[in-house]
Amino acid sequence: MRRTRPYQQRKDAPTARVTTATGPSISKAQEYVFIREDLRRLLLTAGILTVVMIALLIGIGR
Predict the structure, then answer these.
(1) Nearest to 39 by CA among 27, 47, 51
(2) What is the secondary structure of 4-53 as a DSSP string?
(3) What is the pLDDT, as a whole number, of residue 6?
(4) How far, in Å, CA of 26 to CA of 35, rounded?
(5) What is the pLDDT of residues 43-55, one digit of tens each?
(6) Distance from C-alpha of 9 to C-alpha of 15, rounded to nearest angstrom
(7) Phi and psi for 16 in degrees, rounded to 5?
(8) What's the pTM?
(9) pLDDT < 50 stretches in the chain
(10) How far apart are CA 55 and CA 53, in angstroms?
(11) What confidence score (pLDDT) does residue 16 get?
């Protein structure tokens, strides 16, 4: 029969997680503004990359 050591909690492990109730740091309206700006930036980048890819395909095809 194999003997195992009894479970011992690590000394550096916290016994309980302390949670603090904090509210949101930005409002919903501000969050939506940030999301809209991020999507606008993403669409601009995707559009530029699409134009560059089409230009490269046309350039390679010649």
Answers:
(1) 47
(2) -PPP---TTS-SS--------SS-HHHHHHHHHHHHHHHHHHHHHHHHHH
(3) 64
(4) 13
(5) 999 999 999 999 9
(6) 9
(7) -145, 140
(8) 0.53
(9) none
(10) 5
(11) 65
